[in-house]
Amino acid sequence: MVNLQKFGVCRCTPCRSAPASRASKSSHLRPTRRVTVSVRCVSSSPAADTAYTTKVSRNANIAKLQAGYLFPEIARRRTAHLLKHPGAKIISLGIGDTTEPIPEVITNAMAERAHALSTVDGYSGYGAEQGEKKLRAAIAATYYADSGIEETDIFVSDGAKCDISRLQVLFGSSVKIAVQDPSYPAYVDSSVIMGQTDLYQQDVQKYGNIEYMRCSPENGFFPDLSSVPRTDIIFFCSPNNPTGAAASREQLTQLVKFAKNNGSIIVYDSAYAMYISDDSPKSIFEIPGAKEVAIETASFSKYAGFTGVRLGWTVIPKELLFSDGHPVAKDFNRIVCTSFNGASTISQAGGLGCLSPEGLKAMQDVVGFYKENTDIIVETFTSLGYNVYGAKNAPYVWVHFPGRNSWDVFAEILEKAHVVTTPGSGFGPGGEGFVRISAFGHRENIIEAARRLKELYK
Amino acid sequence: MVNLQKFGVCRCTPCRSAPASRASKSSHLRPTRRVTVSVRCVSSSPAADTAYTTKVSRNANIAKLQAGYLFPEIARRRTAHLLKHPGAKIISLGIGDTTEPIPEVITNAMAERAHALSTVDGYSGYGAEQGEKKLRAAIAATYYADSGIEETDIFVSDGAKCDISRLQVLFGSSVKIAVQDPSYPAYVDSSVIMGQTDLYQQDVQKYGNIEYMRCSPENGFFPDLSSVPRTDIIFFCSPNNPTGAAASREQLTQLVKFAKNNGSIIVYDSAYAMYISDDSPKSIFEIPGAKEVAIETASFSKYAGFTGVRLGWTVIPKELLFSDGHPVAKDFNRIVCTSFNGASTISQAGGLGCLSPEGLKAMQDVVGFYKENTDIIVETFTSLGYNVYGAKNAPYVWVHFPGRNSWDVFAEILEKAHVVTTPGSGFGPGGEGFVRISAFGHRENIIEAARRLKELYK
C-alpha cells in the first residue's frame, strides 16, 4: 500500500481550479520529489481523507472573503483568455498599472544610491521605520506646506495599499468602517480580514457591519451624508478609484464636519491627487479642522510609475486623538516599528528624486501624458453615445452601461476587443452597470483600444 | 477667550517626554501655524480638557504593549547617551544592523534594474505580489533543492519581520502561540497586537496566553518539549536570535514530531542560517515531515547587507493544511494580495544578484567577515572569565552576567565603554542576566569595543 504521508495535495488542473477546501478533501494525490511512484488522479478514493491536517483552525474572517482579490481575479481571466486566443493582442486597461518609463532624473537617483551601498561611506543598513528624515521633510514641504503638517506627521511606506492594511491593524477588530460604494476593494477586504465585519450577504452583495455610502451620477458621486449613520472610520478616496470623481472643497468641508460631529476618523486616500485639473483640494488637510479627524494616505505609484518600486506615505497629524486622548500617530508608530522595517532605501532615494525640482516637473509630464490618454478614452465612449464620468481629475474613465451586468460587459470587451477593463461591480454593488477603463497605457495601445471599442459598439 | 479648537497638543519637551495619554490631557497647547497668538505652557489649566478627541476607541490590544518596541527603545537610549556625552565615540553592537558594503555584483544588478526602469523595454509596473517567478525559482533551487520545496511555495517579501506580522494576520486572534524564551520580540509583540494574548503580567514579565519555552544553558538552549503544552503556533528561530544557538538535526526532528503530534504549525525563522558552521540544518524542511507542519521565513538582510534594501521570503508548502483541510498557502496568498504589493522590483533584482554564482560567493565572504568579528568578541569575554554562548553558528554572542540585571549591564557598558549592546531581558524573561553582543561592525570598531570591554571588566 502507498504511504499516504508522503503525498500532498494534487496540483493537476481540475484540482487547482476547484475551490481549495474541496481540493484538499479530494483524492488527487501528488508524489513528492523523493517518491518515484507515479499516482494518477482517481476520483472518490478515500485516500485523501487520511492526508495530514494540523489542528489549527482556519481564520474565520478570511473564510468570509468572497472569491479572489479583484485584480488577481482579472489577471486570471486575462490569462484564460490568452489560452483560448493564443494570438490575441491583448490591451490591458484593467488593473491601473503604469506603463511609461520612470523619468531618468528619478532612476538615476536610485541607481546612484544602489551603487553607493557598495561603498564604505555610502553604505547604510536599517533606516528609520518611519522613513528617512530628509524624505519626510521633502514630502511635508512639497505637499503640505500650507496645511501645518510637519515632517514628524509623515510615515513613509512601501505603498498606500500596504499602509491601509497597517491602519486596519492599528484600528483592530472592534471598529466599524464606512466606504464609498463603489470603492477600491482593499478597504473592504482588509476590514473583513481584521474581523470588523459580519458575513457576506449575497442578496445585497455587501458584508454585514460595513456602511456602504452610495456614490452615483445622481448624487454627483458624493454620498448623501444626512442618511449615513455614524461609523468609527470613514475610508474616502478622492479623486476616487474607480469613479474618477474628485470631491470639491465644499464637499470635503461637509465630510470633515460630518466626521467631527460623529467623532469619526477619515482615512483619506489621495493616491491620484496629482491628476486633479480643477480647483478640488489635493489633500484633506486643505480643509480647516481636518487634522483632528483625518489620516491621509498617498503614493508615488501613479505619479512616477512607482507601482513596482514601492513608495508611498501616510500622514497622521499629532492632533488626531483616540477617545481617551491617546494620539493615533503614537500607536501607528508602534505598528510600523513592530510590523515594518521601512521602505527600501533605494526607493526612498527615488522619492527624493521625485521631489527635486526636475523630478516634480518630470512627474507632471508623466501625469499629463496619461491625462491625454484619458481624453482619448472619453472621446471614444462619448462619440458612441455612452455616458462617461470621472476622467477630468483622474486616470480612470467610468463608463455607464445602463441595465447591463458589469462582468458581462467586461467579458464582452475582452472576448470581442481583446481589451481588459475592470468590471464596476468588483468595486461594490454601487458599481454594477459600470466598467472602469484605466488610462495607463502606451499611446498606440490606447488608440488601438479606442479603435476596437468603436468597432465593437458602433 | 482663545478659541481652543485652534490648538493641538503641545510639543514642548516635558509634554513630549510624558506618556502620551497624560500629555494629551495636559494643558500644554501649541498654536497651529495659522494662529499668531503665542501661548505659553501653563500647568493645571483646564484648557486641554476641551481638546478635541474623536469617539474612536483606542485598540485595546495595542494598549497592552509594554514600553516601546525593543530596538527603537535602545536607539532612544543611545541618543540620550550622546546628548549627555557629546564627544563619545559610540560603537553600536546593539540592534544587529549590518555595516559592510553590499558586494558590487549585487548593487550593480540593482542599479542596472533601476536604469532599465527608465527605458520602454525595461520598464515594469506592478510585479506579482508573490514575487518575480525567476527569483522564486532561484530561491527554491538555491536553498531547497533537496527538500521538495517548489517555486510556487515561495512568497518573496520585503523582509522577515514584515512577513511575521502578515503571518499573524493570517492566523488571526484566536490562536495561541509559543515562543522560545528568550526570542526576537516581533513574535510576541505581533501576537499582542493581533489580540492573541491577555494582559502583561508584571510579576513574571510575560503576557498571558503565550507559552514561553525557556531556553537556557541548562537545556542547551533547546526547550524541554515534554513540559510544553500544545499551542496552535510555535515560533522557532534557529540559529536563534538572541542566544545564537542553532538546533541540531536531532532536536529539530523532535520539534517536528512534537508539532505533528499536537497538530501545531511551526513558524521557523531561518534568517541566520548562512551563519551555521557545523552540520545543523539550515532549513526546517531538511527534516522529514516538516512540510506538513512548518512555515519558514528567511531574509537576505544578514547575508548581503540588505537591512535597508528590504528583501526576504517565506515558504509555505502546499502540504500544510488547516484543520478543515484548507491549504494555509492559499489564505496567505490572499493576505499578500490584499495587504502587500510585492517587494520592490529593484530589491528583487538584487536578490537575483545575490543568488548568482558570484553573488553567493560574495555573500559567503560577507558572512565570513562577520564570523571573524564573532571570534574576537568571544575571545574578549572568554578571556575575562565570562561564559559566552552562541557565536559558533550565528552573528550574536550571548554573554552571561550571573545575578545581574540585563538593563543595568547594558547601561554600565554604554556609560563606561560607550558601546551599545542589547539587554537580554528585552527578549523575554529568560534573557535576564544576559547581554547580546552583535558581531555586525567594522573590524576596527569591533577591536576597539573589545579593548574598551577588556578595560571595563578586567
Explain what the structure shows:
Chains A, B: This is Aminotransferase class I/classII large domain-containing protein. Chains A, B: One of its GO terms (molecular function) is transaminase activity. Chains A, B: Residues 89-453 form the Aminotransferase class I/classII large domain. Chains A, B: Belongs to the class-I pyridoxal-phosphate-dependent aminotransferase family. LL-diaminopimelate aminotransferase subfamily. Chains A, B: InterPro entries: Aminotransferase_I/II_large, DapL/ALD1, PyrdxlP-dep_Trfase, PyrdxlP-dep_Trfase_major, PyrdxlP-dep_Trfase_small. Two copies of one chain form a homodimer. By secondary structure, chain A is of the alpha/beta class. Chain A folds into three domains: 4-55, no CATH class; 70-100 and 361-457, Aspartate Aminotransferase, domain 1 (Alpha-Beta Complex); 104-358, Type I PLP-dependent aspartate aminotransferase-like (Major domain) (Aspartate Aminotransferase, domain 2, 3-Layer(aba) Sandwich). Chain A contains 15 helices and 17 strands. Chain A has helices spanning 13-17, 20-25, 60-64, 70-84, 104-116, 133-143, 160-171, 185-193, 249-262, 301-304, 328-339, 345-354, 357-383, 406-417, 443-457; strands at 7-9, 29-31, 91-92, 154-157, 177-181, 200-201, 206-207, 210-214, 233-237, 265-269, 294-299, 312-315, 388-390, 396-400, 419-420, 422-423, 434-438. Chain A has a seven-stranded mixed β-sheet, sandwiched between helices. In chain A, strands 13-14-17-16 form a four-stranded antiparallel β-sheet. Chain A has a two-stranded antiparallel ribbon with strand order 1-2. In chain A, β13 and β14 form a beta hairpin. In chain A, α5 (104-116) packs antiparallel against α12 and α7 packs parallel to α8 (185-193). The longest helix of chain A is centred in the C-terminal third of the chain and has 27 residues, at 357-383. Chain A is globular and about 60 Å long. Chains A and B meet through α2, α3, α5, α7 and α8 of A and α2, α3, α5, α7 and α8 of B.
